[in-house]
Structure formats: structure tokens, C-alpha cells
């Protein structure tokens, strides 16, 4: 039964509030089998940044630029926390990511006038299965990312490679630096394809996730991008395989990646490399 729950809004959370929100997200992950917040939102919770944090006694929502995520503690659902958080955001145009294609989230979204818009797949492949040999185009070599040297070039190529992508194409130097400061960051797993003049043509940034819940350790194709003028020369496939070999050599048995269901070129590439759909995140839209 939906009740009215008071909402507090803040630009930044105190250390105790950060702990509370992350504990709430952990409780939801335990109950739902999927972590309810994206990496971007967790980084904003922990480090601050643009965006607004909304909280009820048992719910949390993050909102930035008309897009948000929300989660309610599993022991306090159907008590109006989700509705109150949405109410505090107001009747404006809004996008919400729901991680996992949960029927409860679907019912809540429909009840509040949202429709399904984008679907983001997580695909996986065993790294114990053999990888194809994909040669690099002539004159192209692969080297590791050099912190303090490669940042500007990477931000530029990333923006071009993801010009059509609503989130990835907007990453700034700060978005890169905040990730370089994370404990998981490993420049040896951040592969750059360069020409003979050392100009950046494309990259494959991998990220290793330790085992969590039911998930084994995962080596993620975190961001893979090729400068548009270098498309269709086999560079994406060669960079993918080079990164997957790096992950396999590091002892990982599973590779994962996220891709928009509608990104035909990327989905085709990943299917050819043996990836299959593992789960889906749904972007709901109202407005
Ligand atoms: C989806 C979620 C945020 C809903 O939060 P909540 O506080 O339980 O939602 P409310 O109590 O405000 O529910 C409002 C209405 O939505 C609908 N609804 C919510 N959860 C539902 C469910 N599991 N099954 C069917 N209908 C549901 C109902 O119509 C409900 O009204 P009612 O209880 O009077 O029937 C919560 O289940 C959650 O945290 N899920 C995991 C994170 C997630 O998926 N977030 C993205 C949401 S789009």
C-alpha cells in the first residue's frame, strides 16, 4: 500500500550517509541478484560530483541531467518510497536505468507512466574457449596506456568513437582521471592501437571484477573504441582479441561486456567472437 514518505535532497553525502546508501544498495543486490546502481552513480556517491542525491528512510535516488537511478530497501518496498522519490523529482522528462529486467521494476515504471526505451545487454564468453587469430592492420601496433601522457589523446578519440552514444561520448578528462585513481585501474590492461607516428587509432580498456555474489571473476571489455576513419579495417576485432588474451593470461575464465541491443555493428562483432547475452538493463523513459 503506497504511503507518503518524506524525501531529503543533497548535492553531496556525508561519510555516514554514503555508508547508509551503499548498504542499502548491497541489501537490494542480495535480494534481487543484481546490483541496483551503475558505476557512474557509485562514483558520484563516493567522490561527489554533479547530480542530486534524494533519500527517504529506506530509499535512494540519484538524478543528473534528467536521468536517474533509484532503489528501495527490499524490506520496505510497496510502502511508497519509490513513488515519493519520483514525486520529489517532479513531473519533468526523465530516464531511469533499471538493472536486470525485473517484473517489479517494470510494474513500477509502467505505474508511473514510463515506457521501455533502451535495452543494454551484458554479454559473456568463456575465456577457456579458444580465441580467433585476428591480425592487426599494416603499420598498427598495440601498446599499454601511459598515465600522464595519453589522457588528452584518449579523451579526443573516445569522443569521436562514441559521438552517437548518449553517455560514453561525453567523458571528460576528469571522468578518465577519477577512474585512473580507482584501485582496479591497470594501465597494462588499457590497450592502445597506434600508427607508426604513435597517433591513437583505437583502444580497448579492460577492467577486472573480483567474484561477487553468484558472479565469477569477470574480465570486462570496459570501453572499446575505434576512431571513425579507421572503421571496417578489422581494428575493433583485433583490439578485442588482444584485450581478451590479456585477460585470459591474467587467469580470468570469463569475459563480459555491456552493449546497446540496438548497436548492430558491435553486437555482430561480439557474437562473432563467441559472446552471448547474459542479462539486460532497461532504460525507462517518461516525457
Ligand atoms: C522498483 C522499486 C524502486 C519500487 O520501489 P517501491 O518503494 O517498492 O515502490 P512504491 O511503493 O512507491 O510503488 C508504487 C506502485 O508501483 C507499482 N509497483 C511497485 N513495485 C511493484 C511490484 N514489485 N510488483 C507490482 N507492482 C509494483 C504498484 O502499482 C505500486 O503501488 P501499490 O503498492 O499501491 O500497488 C523497488 O522495487 C526497487 O528498488 N527495485 C530494485 C531497483 C530498481 O529496479 N530500480 C529501477 C526502478 S525503474
From TrEMBL:
EC number: 2.3.1.189
UniProt keyword list: Acyltransferase, Repeat, Transferase
UniProt keyword Repeat present: yes
Residues given in the record as 1D-myo-inositol 2-(L-cysteinylamino)-2-deoxy-alpha-D-glucopyranoside binding sites: 39, 167, 207, 220, 258
GO biological process terms, semicolon-separated: mycothiol biosynthetic process
Binding positions for acetyl-CoA 2 per the UniProt entry: 224-226, 263-268
Top EC category: transferase
PANTHER family: AMINOALKYLPHOSPHONATE N-ACETYLTRANSFERASE-RELATED-RELATED (PTHR43877)
HAMAP family: MshD
Name this protein carries in UniProt: Mycothiol acetyltransferase
Lineage per the UniProt record: Bacteria, Bacillati, Actinomycetota, Actinomycetes, Micromonosporales
Amino acid at each position: 500500500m503506497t504511503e507518503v514518505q518524506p524525501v531529503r535532497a543533497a548535492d553531496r553525502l556525508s561519510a555516514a550517509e554514503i555508508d547508509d546508501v551503499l548498504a542499502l544498495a548491497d541489501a537490494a543486490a542480495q535480494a534481487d541478484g543484481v546490483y541496483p546502481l551503475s558505476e557512474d552513480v557509485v562514483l558520484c556517491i563516493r567522490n561527489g560530483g554533479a547530480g542530486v542525491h534524494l533519500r527517504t528512510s529506506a530509499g535512494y535516488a540519484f538524478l543528473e541531467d534528467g536521468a536517474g537511478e533509484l532503489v528501495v530497501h527490499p524490506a520496505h518496498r510497496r510502502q511508497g518510497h519509490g513513488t515519493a522519490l519520483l514525486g520529489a523529482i517532479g513531473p519533468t522528462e526523465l530516464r531511469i536505468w533499471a538493472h536486470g529486467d525485473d517484473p517489479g521494476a517494470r510494474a513500477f515504471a509502467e505505474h508511473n507512466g514510463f515506457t521501455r526505451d533502451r535495452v543494454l545487454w551484458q554479454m559473456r564468453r568463456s575465456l577457456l574457449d579458444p580465441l580467433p587469430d585476428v591480425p592487426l592492420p599494416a603499420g598498427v601496433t598495440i601498446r599499454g596506456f601511459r598515465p600522464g601522457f595519453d589522457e588528452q589523446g584518449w579523451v579526443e578519440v573516445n569522443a569521436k568513437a562514441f559521438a552517437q552514444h548518449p553517455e560514453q561520448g561525453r567523458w571528460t578528462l576528469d571522468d578518465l582521471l577519477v577512474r585512473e585513481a580507482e584501485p582496479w585501474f591497470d594501465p597494462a590492461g588499457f590497450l592502445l592501437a597506434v600508427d607508426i607516428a604513435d597517433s591513437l587509432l583505437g583502444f580497448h580498456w579492460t577492467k577486472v571484477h573480483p567474484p561477487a555474489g553468484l558472479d565469477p571473476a569477470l574480465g570486462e571489455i570496459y570501453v572499446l573504441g575505434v576512431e571513425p576513419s579507421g572503421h571496417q579495417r578489422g581494428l575493433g576485432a583485433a583490439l578485442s582479441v588482444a584485450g581478451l588474451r590479456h585477460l585470459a593470461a591474467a587467469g580470468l575464465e570469463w569475459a563480459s561486456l555491456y552493449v546497446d541491443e540496438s548497436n548492430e555493428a558491435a553486437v555482430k562483432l561480439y557474437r562473432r567472437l563467441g559472446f552471448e547475452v547474459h542479462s539486460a538493463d532497461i532504460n525507462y523513459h517518461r516525457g
